[in-house]
Structures are given as structure tokens and as C-alpha cells.
Recover the amino acids of this structure.
């Protein structure tokens, strides 16, 4: 067969992959259906994960596979499966995303970012520090994808100044449409948000609100080394900062949901406990990541100067990147963008008030050393989910503009900060369905015994030191998530590590918390996370540049994650002793095994 024929076959498979995979994958693993209950659950898990990775089915649709096949194959009844799709963690996530939508609509996050950039100046190292810090801070409280989309539009405008003269566009000379078609496979948790970002223009109405909040991502001409490092600093700041809080990324929310299902409500990690450990860890990672990016920028600039000196013609036609940022055009651009926002508006104040109030209530809900406000509602079992949804509802009541005391001649309907028309289009409903599908899959893995079967393949880990287990797990997971869904990896690893913790009488958090952090360590490839895809799609960074810088960032974050878990983590989480909720679970397992014998 000739090369041309092979190319035609490969193209046919790619074009018809939905039909091919939807038939071939279920048939290939069909023998598992006729075996044990754990094997039947494995059949559903394999099909779901492959469909999600290959995008054989749309991700929200593929997440329905547990709801379809678990009752049919006798793994769980339909009511039990349905609870996973509307669990407490799902409602909590819905409340968070609605509150984040209000910040995006009022442009509060953009005002915060531009306020910081106005005070930085034109030095590329300070600009890189500012972009990284702002991205990390914003991603602690809001969606990583939304923060990356907003920051990359600002960062790209700055990066373009390293290749273009003021007032000249840096797009291709043929004036082709620069809109990037983001069709590559990205991480499950925000793939649906990526589809909302593409083909949307950002519009700000006369109230200063953003009714079409998702900006277009455009491709410009490849920027200089300064521009590449500035754009990469946004990606690293967003990904690292998101793990600093319990709500910054989806993974800690899934962790608490699965811990509650496995051990009970007492086993979930509190907001104050998480941030006490994660914030110092991510701060150290950010500092060393910034130092690495400074070293990389210095080396690339030095190499560029040597190349310019060797090539006379290139030296004549090329402007040094350090000089291209020294003019006042950059500061003029930032000031103009900030001026477009106008004065801080009524809706922005209310959005900020709600965000700050919710964060304070999260932090003081159930403190480690003293009783939090949740202790006042033990009889009614109020949770932080109720509070989060309550504040989300307020956004549909508070007026968009400051109310007037005068009665107008022609009253008009009062616009609120959020309305259903906006939320219906801006809210990432697909993300909620995918997370519900993974929670249903995790519940099935537990009830079918598949988790214990998987753990038997890793019995050798019980004879290895705990710190070695954590090192192996975090390294393997960090490498895997560069190509595979981080939620899929987490759902598979969770039952293995919980069973291992029971057998070795180890605190379950000792294995699971570093697992969460390692699932977010994907910095090398565009397909690893939606943040990486947004950064790559802006056209200022190549895959080689991402991989070259990202591999060192991966190593830095892996090292400090393991270091903090084995040192600082013992003080914060008390890893030396096994908690009561884990001891009770082990006792129940032993009683069940003895009864079966």
C-alpha cells in the first residue's frame, strides 16, 4: 500500500472516528459483560474514558454512559446512579459558576487585572511577574478557563508589541481571518467552556456589563522570546494558582465528593485546612516558576543577540525586544483599556461583595481548632452548598444599576446583575454533566468491587515506604494528564489509593491530596488542559516552546508537592495518626470480610 493510500485511510478513520469508535470499542471489550460485576463496571469505565479521550461522543453525552449501563448490567439501580448527577458537590459547583458568571459579566476580573498592570511599567521581567501573579490570584476564585481567556487577550496585546511598531497590526500580511478553530481534544473538565469561547465577540454595553463574555482567541504572527515568555507566564500562573483554594479547580470538589461517599461527611477537607496547606505550596511553586522563566528569558535573549550579531541583515531589520517594550505605547494601551471600563459601577461593587462574603463564609464554616458557624446548624445539617446557592440567587435579585429614589414617567423593567438569558448561554452546563458522570462512575467502581480488583495489581505498593508511593503516584499521574483526562485518572486512582490506605493503616489524605495536585500538573502540551490550548491558540507560543519550558515547571511543582506533603503536610493534616472516620471504615470492612468468610 502506497503512502498516499495510507494517508487516505488515516484521514477516513479520523473523519469517521465517531462511527468507527462507537461500534468498535464496545464490541472489542464486550466479553467483560459476561464476567463478574467488577468486570462489567470496568467495561463501562473503559468505554466512557475512551469515548471522552477520542471525542467519539460529545463529552456531556458520553457522561450519560453510567446512567444507561449501570442499571442494565446490574451494577447499581437507576435511583442510586441519578443521585451522583445532582450530588451536593454538583450543586456547590453550580453555585460557584453562577457567582463567577457575575464577575465576568460586570468585568470585575478585568478591572482587577488592568489595575495591576497599570503600575508595572515596561520592564519584561516585571510584566511577567505581574501577569503570572494576577493570573494566579484570579484563578484562585474564578474559573481557570475564563481567567485564561481574559488574561491572554491582555497578554497578547502586550506580546504583540515585541514584534510590531505602535499602531501596526501584527497579524499575517494576507489579512486572513485570524480566528482560531479550537478543535483539538482538551481536558474534560473545561472542554465545553472552550467551545463557548470560540466564535464569540466580547461586547460591553452602556452599563459596563459584558453580555457576551467569552472573547475570541486570535492567531497573530509569532512573537519574540519576550512575548512567548509573557504568554507562558499566564498559563503557569493560572494553572498553579487554581489549586491554592478548594474552589479554584474542579479536582478538590470531586475529592470531597468522593471522600464523602467513601467515608462520610466527616472526611471532607475544609476550606481553611486546604488553603493553609495549598496556598504556601502554590506560592513557593510560583516563585520558583517565575525564577525559571526569568532564567529562560535571559538565556533566550542572549541567544537571540548572538544570532543577530552573526547575521547582518537580520540585525538591520529586527528590533530588540527589550527596546520594543521601552516606549509609552504599552502603557497607553493599558490605560486606554482601563478607561473603557469607566468608573467602578454599582454591579461591580455588589459582585465583589458577594465573592468576598462567600469566601469568608467558606473559610469560617468549620475551622480546625475552633467551631465554625456550621456548628450552629447541626440539627438542620446546613452545608456551604446552601450558602453558596443562596448568594447565587441574590445575583438574580440585586439591580444592575443603582436604584433611583425618583419615580420615572415611563417605568421600565429592572435589570438584575444576572438574568437567565445570560446564564443560559454563558454557563458551562456540559462541565456539570461530565463531573456528574465521573462521580457516578466512581460510585460504581466502589460498589462493584472494581477498586479492590485494581488495587490487587498494586499490592507491591503496600511494602514500599509511604513517601515513595506518593512520589511514584504523583509522577505517573503528572505524566498521564499531559495526554489523558485528569478526572479520568483521578477516578481510577482514587479507589486504588483508598484501599491501599486501609490496608497500610495510613491517613487517606496522605495519598489523595498529592493526587489532586498532581492531576493539575499539566504544563507541556496544548491538549493537556483548556488553559494550555487557549495559550497555544493565541499564536505566540509553539509546541516546542511549551514543552521546553513546561517540563521544568512540571519538575519544580512535583518536587515541592512531594516535599510539602512529607514535611509541612504532617503538621497541617496530622498524617501521623489515622482519623476516626477512617478507622471506622476499616473496622466495617474487616467485619464484612469476616462475615463473608
Amino acid at each position: 500500500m502506497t503512502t498516499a493510500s495510507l494517508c487516505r485511510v488515516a484521514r477516513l478513520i479520523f473523519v469517521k472516528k465517531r462511527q468507527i469508535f462507537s461500534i468498535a470499542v464496545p464490541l472489542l471489550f464486550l466479553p467483560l459483560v459476561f464476567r463478574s460485576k467488577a468486570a462489567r463496571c470496568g467495561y463501562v469505565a473503559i468505554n466512557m474514558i475512551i469515548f471522552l479521550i477520542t471525542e467519539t461522543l460529545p463529552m456531556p453525552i458520553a457522561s450519560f454512559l453510567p446512567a444507561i449501563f449501570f442499571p442494565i448490567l446490574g451494577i447499581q439501580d437507576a435511583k442510586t446512579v441519578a443521585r451522583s448527577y445532582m450530588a451536593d458537590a454538583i450543586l456547590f459547583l453550580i453555585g460557584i459558576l453562577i457567582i463567577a458568571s457575575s464577575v465576568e459579566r460586570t468585568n470585575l476580573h478585568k478591572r482587577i487585572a488592568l489595575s495591576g498592570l497599570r503600575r508595572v511599567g515596561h520592564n519584561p521581567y516585571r510584566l511577567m511577574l505581574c501577569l503570572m501573579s494576577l493570573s494566579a490570584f484570579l484563578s484562585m476564585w474564578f474559573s481557570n478557563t475564563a481567567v485564561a481567556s481574559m488574561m491572554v487577550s491582555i497578554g497578547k496585546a502586550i506580546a504583540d508589541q515585541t514584534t510590531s511598531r505602535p499602531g501596526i497590526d501584527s497579524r499575517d500580511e494576507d489579512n486572513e481571518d485570524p480566528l482560531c478553530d479550537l478543535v483539538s481534544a482538551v481536558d474534560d473538565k473545561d472542554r465545553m467552556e472552550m467551545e463557548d469561547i470560540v466564535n464569540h465577540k466580547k461586547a460591553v454595553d452602556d452599563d459596563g456589563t459584558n453580555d457576551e463574555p467569552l472573547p475570541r482567541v486570535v492567531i497573530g504572527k509569532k512573537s519574540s522570546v519576550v512575548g512567548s515568555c509573557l504568554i507562558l507566564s499566564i498559563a503557569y500562573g493560572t494553572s498553579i494558582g487554581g489549586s491554592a483554594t478548594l474552589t479554584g479547580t474542579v479536582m478538590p470538589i470531586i475529592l470531597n465528593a468522593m471522600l464523602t461517599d467513601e467515608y462520610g461527611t466527616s472526611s471532607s477537607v475544609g476550606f481553611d485546612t486546604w488553603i493553609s496547606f495549598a496556598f504556601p505550596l502554590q506560592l513557593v511553586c510560583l516563585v520558583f516558576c517565575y525564577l525559571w522563566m526569568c532564567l529562560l528569558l535571559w538565556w533566550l535573549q542572549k541567544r537571540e543577540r548572538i544570532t543577530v550579531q552573526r547575521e547582518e541583515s537580520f540585525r538591520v531589520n529586527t528590533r530588540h525586544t527589550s527596546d520594543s517594550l521601552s516606549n509609552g505605547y504599552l502603557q497607553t494601551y493599558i490605560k486606554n483599556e482601563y478607561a473603557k471600563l469607566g468608573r467602578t459601577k454599582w454591579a461591580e461593587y455588589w459582585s465583589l461583595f458577594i465573592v468576598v462574603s462567600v469566601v469568608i463564609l467558606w473559610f469560617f464554616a468549620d475551622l480546625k481548632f475552633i467551631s465554625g458557624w456550621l456548628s450552629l446548624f447541626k440539627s438542620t445539617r446546613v452545608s456551604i452548598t446552601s450558602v453558596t446557592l443562596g448568594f447565587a440567587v441574590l445575583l438574580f435579585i440585586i439591580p444592575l444599576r443603582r436604584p433611583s429614589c425618583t419615580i420615572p414617567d415611563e417605568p421600565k423593567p429592572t435589570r438584575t446583575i444576572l438574568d437567565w438569558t445570560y446564564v443560559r448561554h454563558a454557563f458551562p452546563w456540559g462541565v456539570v454533566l461530565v463531573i456528574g458522570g465521573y462521580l457516578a462512575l466512581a460510585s460504581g467502581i466502589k460498589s462493584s468491587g472494581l477498586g479492590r480488583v485494581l488495587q490487587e495489581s498494586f499490592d507491591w505498593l503496600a511494602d514500599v515506604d509511604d513517601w515513595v508511593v506518593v512520589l511514584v503516584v504523583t509522577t505517573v499521574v503528572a505524566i498521564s494528564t499531559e495526554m489523558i483526562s485528569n478526572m479520568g485518572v483521578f477516578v481510577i486512582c482514587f479507589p486504588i489509593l483508598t484501599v491501599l490506605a486501609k490496608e497500610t493503616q495510613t491517613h487517606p489524605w496522605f495519598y489523595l491530596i498529592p493526587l489532586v495536585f498532581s492531576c493539575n500538573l499539566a504544563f507541556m502540551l496544548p491538549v493537556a488542559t483548556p488553559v494550555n490550548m487557549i495559550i497555544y491558540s493565541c499564536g505566540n507560543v509553539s509546541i516546542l516552546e511549551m514543552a521546553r519550558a513546561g517540563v521544568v515547571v512540571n519538575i519544580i511543582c512535583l518536587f515541592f508537592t512531594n516535599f510539602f506533603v512529607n514535611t509541612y503536610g504532617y503538621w497541617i493534616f496530622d498524617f501521623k495518626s489515622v482519623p476516626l472516620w477512617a478507622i471506622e471504615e476499616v473496622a466495617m470492612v474487616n467485619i464484612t470480610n469476616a462475615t463473608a468468610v
Observations:
- The chain is about 65% helix and 0% strand.
- Confidence is low (pLDDT under 50) at residues 164-207, 212-222, 312-324, 589-597.
